[in-house]
Amino acid sequence: MASVTDQVARLPGRDIRFRHYRPHEAPVLPAILFCHGGGFVWGSIETHDGICRRLAARTGAAVISVGYRLAPETRFPGPAQDAYGVLREVIANADTYGIDPANTALCGDSAGGGICVSVAKFAARDAFPLRHLALIYPALDPDCASVSQRALADGPLLTQEAMRWFWFCYLGASQESASEFMPLHEAHLESLPSTTIATAEYDLLKDEGEALASRLGAHGVDFTSECFPGMIHGFLSLPAVSPITEAAFNFVCGRLQAALGTHP
């Protein structure tokens, strides 16, 4: 990286930390706001530092990694509002941050992918332009009742019981799952930007990503979805290298590059 800096967005009632990665010395860069995974309850800027560095290097865009507040202390929509607040802070001060305000995208893995869809819906509501939405094995459906959820209930790595607990921590016992800003709710889907969805064959979240792809297609949104064979949940963050993990990362980064007009 040309530079990596930790900064703070001073939002109403809270300060939200973010890390700003710049792969080039260019005075102005397109930006990717990144939301980390961790079941809404753990994970951090630190746990996803490596993937953010790779994302910036591979796309040529600045990456803004958000340290949103975690559940259950902060439940939906708080974490998504934190990420959206950081996005608006960075864009409002684009000259200070060296960001092209008309050329921004969202990217997130697992729970971070679900948060990114909510952020994209906030942006659609406010007519706030986004170039692209990139989702890596996203967590989208609190019902946890899909075919892949049942078939892979015992893992590998991520289980149905754990996923139900994560959603409970995020939503509590309320009816927040019916909110129009939840990822699979039909509201605002037609206004989402072009979208990339990467899923894994042996991930119980696979069908959720495919369900979102189907709904986006029905609403006329440009999307590309690909399921990577033999892979499990979280495979891009695991300490292993294979042609398939590289193909998956290239797939996501290639779509972001095309949307943002960047070069690695």
What does this 3D model show about the protein?
This protein is of the alpha/beta class. It contains eight helices and eight strands. It has a single domain (3-260), classed as Rossmann fold (3-Layer(aba) Sandwich). β1 (3-11) and β2 form a beta hairpin. α2 (78-92) crosses α4 (111-125). The relative contact order is 0.15. The model has no long low-confidence stretch (mean pLDDT 96).
Short description:
The protein contains eight helices and eight strands. By secondary structure, the chain is α/β, with parallel strands linked by helices. It has an eight-stranded mixed sheet with strand order 1-2-4-3-5-6-7-8, with helices on both faces.
Defining traits:
alpha/beta, globular, 264 residues, Rossmann fold, 8-stranded mixed sheet
Order of strands, main sheet, comes to 1-2-4-3-5-6-7-8
The overall number of domains is: 1
* CATH-derived topology: Rossmann fold
Q: Please identify the structural class as seen in this structure.
A: alpha/beta
What's the CATH first level? Alpha Beta
Distance linking N and C termini: 12 Å
Radius of gyration: 17 Å
Low confidence ranges: none
Return the average pLDDT rounded to an integer: 96
Count of DSSP E strands?
Answer: 8
Q: What name goes with the CATH superfamily?
A: Alpha/Beta hydrolase fold, catalytic domain
User: How would you spell out the order of helices and strands?
Assistant: EEEHEHHEHEHHEHEH
Secondary-structure map:
Layout: E1 3-11, E2 14-22, E3 29-35, H1 49-59, E4 62-66, H2 78-92, H3 94-97, E5 99-109, H4 111-125, E6 132-136, H5 147-151, H6 160-171, E7 194-202, H7 206-218, E8 223-232, H8 243-260
Helix pairs in contact: 2-4
